[in-house]
NAD(P)-binding domain-containing protein (Rhynchospora breviuscula), 405 residues
Amino acid sequence: MLPVNRGRAPHRAGMDFTDAKRKPSVLSKVVLALVLTVFCVYILKQSPGIAGTNMFSVHEPGVTHVLVTGGAGFIGSHAALRLLKDNYRVTIVDNLSRGNMAAVKILQGLFPEPGRLQFIYGDLGDTKVVNKIFSENAFDAVMHFAAVAYVGESTLEPLRYYHNITANTLTIMEAMAAHRVKTLIYSSTCATYGEPEKMPITEVTPQVPINPYGKAKKMAEDIILDFSKNSDMAVMVLRYFNVIGSDPEGRLGEAPRPELREHGRISGACFDAARGIIPGLKVRGTDYPTQDGTCIRDYIDVTDLVDAHVKALGKAEPGKVGIYNVGTGRGRSVKEFVEACKKATGVEIKVEYLTRRPGDYAEVYSDPSKINRELNWTAKYTDLQESLSIAWRWQKSHRNGYGTS
Ligand SMILES: NC(=O)c1ccc[n+]([C@@H]2O[C@H](COP(=O)([O-])OP(=O)(O)OC[C@H]3O[C@@H](n4cnc5c(N)ncnc54)[C@H](O)[C@@H]3O)[C@@H](O)[C@H]2O)c1
């Protein structure tokens, strides 16, 4: 008995000893594995680079992934906001040459969930970069906003304009074709029409652009239209008139680089004058053949404009091309604009009248009946004074653009 007991005792003791040591070891391994798994999942969730790549690189049923080029810029950021609100998945590509990272950060703050929005810093003039972006992401559609976009600047730096607008659009088209991206919504402009003899401008008004900006956009349109003759890509070309306004909820605004002021758009100049950043407003050209001698333009609110994009995206059909003017159909003179700006800002802006600006044209306003009819779109939010008031609210609280509040 004794030997048996003696024999068993150490054995049991040994077994007990071994069990006691093994149990915590297995347990601790399980716990460690669990902790590591939780940690990895946490890191993946925290890192948009890793989690984002996975979600953005696959087509997901029921989710439309839109590449918004130039999404850090004025119109692109407003379009991205609208797309995100409408539950699209958005990738913004921008080289920040003119856009604002702060606008992208605001969008990221509003839509922080994984798989909603990613930002890629990239220059669309670099074919390798563009191909990498297209091979690493699964886009369903492209809204191509990115461009240099100042008429006056284009007369001084034409090559830059042809490169940035025409050549970069060709690069985008090649990448879309190679990666079988199905839909393109292209940002074109009324500047492609030049100075037509007959107003209003319809989509069949001959396109005879008179400055490098308009010519570069017309060439880009030609590339797109020629390609689409033999392709099943769904294409919508939107020719915008003059864009004003900003997000009515005050999250985004128009904040061009200060050095672009001299080429800038009239709304920016009005606000700068109202804030005292510039001494007054310079109206270039008072001898145009118009009612009050100043140029006539068709101003469209950015909220209406991005709505046209979403409608165009919804109605885009494979193998078909839709070309639409996006304007109100009503021309307003620069003098009228200045009066509306004075009322919107409450500031008696000084106005200096100068000679014409090279490359400008007298009168431009749209006939929007095609887009009204086919895309069921009308300019609902555009009201010159109200649009300027909304934009002014943002400008007043963002004296240095997105830099300060
Ligand atoms: N604002 C208007 O009144 C108006 C009128 C007609 C057409 N458009 C067109 O709308 C589009 C957007 O204009 P916007 O007023 O928002 O201009 P914007 O300058 O505010 O935005 C353009 C964006 O494109 C980016 N970009 C430029 N070149 C790039 C490149 N090579 N690679 C990557 N990103 C690049 C800029 O950094 C900027 O963020 C343009 O195509 C413009 O021609 C504008």
User: Anything to note?
Assistant: The chain is about 45% helix and 15% strand. Residues 1-21, 40-52 have pLDDT under 50 and may be disordered.
